[in-house]
């Protein structure tokens, strides 16, 4: 498996994918072998069969990602962006990591969780989480939770950590639940917190930007008169209550007639 440099460059990785695709299209045996070794669609096939697949740029990107140990180009891209963000602003390293662990409804924003990226970042920085029990919730470290509860039994009821999450929410919403190596650990932590008295209804509001409610505009009346908005349903330059009021239609048994309110009736 290839090793990613400390400050990876996404542009350079894209260039690698384009170069690999160009070699493949020129029937280079080395490029064909790389696709066979890394791309599931080409596994076990002959050079002729791989050439006949007509692989495209996204296949080359997937091959590059798998050579670096990621399941997809999106995961590799997420890892590179997180690593660059950590290098540019070390003070927010933990926050960038949490945004890979939790989806946007918990961490804020609109992104989905990327647990494989989070694990890879944690492997590169083993001491990243320190002794924070709220961060221990994210990875299912039951021993850390037990130590925190022994020191302060009431912490299981309080929100905390960089994202201000209640402990049970921090455990049950962790994206690492998707990974078999972490799933049982996180379930054990959830059981421990419930046994320690944590409220099963702990929750936090939806922090996803796409779900934030926008204030509705207030109905406006014409600035030149006092006619209420309910009467002046259409306010624009062509049909203003000060120039010509909206048309009201009345229906009788024999006729249907339209009546226009004169300007003097509203202003």
Q: Could you describe the 3D structure shown?
A:
By secondary structure, the protein is mainly alpha-helical. Helix 5 (73-88) packs antiparallel against helix 6, helix 6 runs antiparallel to helix 8 (115-124) and helix 9 runs antiparallel to helix 10. The protein has helices at residues 10-25, 29-38, 47-52, 57-67, 73-88, 93-101, 104-107, 115-124, 133-139, 142-151, 167-172, 180-195, and strands at 247-251, 256-260. Residues 230-267 have low confidence and may be disordered. 45% of the residues lie in helices and 4% in strands. The longest helix is centred in the N-terminal third of the chain and has 16 residues, at 10-25. The protein starts with 9 loop residues before the first helix and ends in a 7-residue tail after the last strand. It folds into three domains: 10-76, no CATH class; 90-195, no CATH class; 215-267, no CATH class. Strands 1-2 form a two-stranded antiparallel ribbon.
Entry keywords:
267 residues; mainly alpha; two-stranded antiparallel sheet; 4% strand
Quickly count the helices: 12
- Number of domain units: 3
Give the termini separation.
79 Å
Integer average pLDDT: 81
Portion in beta strands: under 5%
Instruction: Report the strand count.
Output: 2
Helix content: 40-55%
| Largest sheet properties | 2 strands, antiparallel
Low-confidence residue ranges? 230-267
Please write the string of helix (H) and strand (E) elements: HHHHHHHHHHHHEE
Strand arrangement within the widest β-sheet reads: 1-2
Based on secondary structure, the structural category is mainly alpha
User: Using only CA atoms, what is the Rg?
Assistant: 30 Å
Shape: elongated
């Amino acid at each position: 498996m290839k090793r990613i440099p400390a400050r990876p460059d996404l542009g350079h990785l894209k260039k690698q994918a384009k170069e690999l695709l160009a070699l493949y299209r020129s029937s280079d045996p080395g490029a064909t072998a790389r696709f066979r070794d890394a791309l599931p669609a080409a596994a076990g096939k002959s050079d002729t069969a791989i050439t006949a697949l007509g692989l495209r740029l996204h296949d080359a990107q997937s091959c590059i990602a798998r050579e670096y140990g990621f399941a997809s180009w999106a995961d590799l891209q997420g890892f590179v962006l997180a690593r660059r963000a950590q290098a540019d602003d070390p003070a927010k390293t933990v926050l960038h990591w949490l945004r890979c662990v939790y989806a946007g409804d918990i961490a804020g924003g609109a992104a989905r969780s990327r647990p494989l990226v989070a694990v890879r970042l944690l492997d590169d920085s083993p001491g990243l989480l320190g002794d924070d029990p709220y961060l221990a919730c994210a990875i299912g470290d039951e021993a850390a939770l037990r130590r925190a509860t022994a020191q302060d039994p009431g912490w299981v009821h309080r929100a905390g950590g960089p994202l201000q999450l209640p402990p049970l929410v921090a455990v049950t919403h962790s994206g690492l639940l998707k990974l078999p190596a972490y799933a049982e650990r996180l379930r054990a932590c959830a059981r421990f917190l419930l046994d320690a008295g944590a409220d099963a209804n702990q929750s936090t509001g939806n922090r996803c930007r796409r779900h934030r409610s926008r204030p509705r505009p207030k109905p406006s009346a014409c600035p030149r008169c006092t006619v209420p908005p309910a009467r002046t349903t259409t306010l624009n330059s062509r049909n203003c209550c000060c120039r010509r009021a909206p048309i009201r239609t009345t229906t009788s048994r024999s006729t249907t007639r339209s009546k226009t309110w004169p300007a003097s009736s509203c202003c």
